[in-house]
Amino acid sequence: MHNGELAAQHSDTTPAARARYLDRIRQTPPRQRLQRALDLSSQLRARVMAAIEKSMPGASREALAEAFLRRVYGDAIAARYAQRHPR
Q: Which of 40, 63, 78, 81 fits 70 for a cystine, CB–CB 3.0-4.6 Å?
């Protein structure tokens, strides 16, 4: 579990800079914050999949999906996918 307070203690960001950053986030309209989060999530998924595809050239779509699920969600979810989508 992430502890933001503990993370702040081990940061190279000054308390004043962190306060300004958090203030800017709070001032951002909710719809814009949500869009940024969705965009970052999409970019992260694309980068993870690109790394998997690079490490598994020629792999089937199912094998790539299973590897993605394993990396992002863990073995249990990947195993459930593999049972439903045999190669």
A: 78
